Amino acid sequence: MAVSEKPLMGMRVAVVLTDGVEQSDFVEPRNALSQAGAQVTVIGSTKGEIQAFKHHDKAEKLKAEKSLEVNANDFDALLLPGWRTECRCLAS
């Protein structure tokens, strides 16, 4: 992909994950954002591992680079994969 084909070059995207996220709800959008030039940062309720699922089965553990204690001004966009699960977990 040429530089001109990277419309999100320089954009900083925060992806907030919690345990129970559907793996494909995270992986596919993250890959698309990265391929479009965005800098993707994975944020969890705590820094460390997040258990992803493939339907009802445990899938790989994903790494949260940062905890929720980040500055919103450090990001241009927010992605909540599997938003129903993420929002419920974050609200509690």
Compressed to H and E, one letter per element, the order equals EHEEEEEH
Chain-averaged pLDDT: 89
Cα end-to-end separation: 41 Å
Specify the CATH architecture.
3-Layer(aba) Sandwich
- Give me the Rg, rounded: 13 Å
Shape: globular
| Largest pleated sheet | 4 strands, parallel
CATH superfamily: Class I glutamine amidotransferase (GATase) domain
Query: What is the CATH class designation?
Result: Alpha Beta
Name the helicity range. 10-25%
**Which residues form runs of ≥5 with pLDDT under 50?**
none
Number of strands: 6
Number of helices: 2
The number of domains is: 1
Write out the strand line-up for the largest beta sheet, numbering strands in chain order. Answer: 5-2-1-6
SS-based class: alpha/beta
Plain-language structure description:
By secondary structure, this protein is α/β, with parallel strands linked by helices. The protein has one domain (3-91): Class I glutamine amidotransferase (GATase) domain (Rossmann fold, 3-Layer(aba) Sandwich). It is built from two helices and six strands. The chain has helices at residues 23-35, 83-91, and strands at 12-17, 39-44, 48-54, 57-64, 66-67, 77-79. The strands form two sheets. It has a four-stranded parallel sheet. The longest helix is centred in the first third of the chain and has 13 residues, at 23-35. The mean pLDDT is 89.
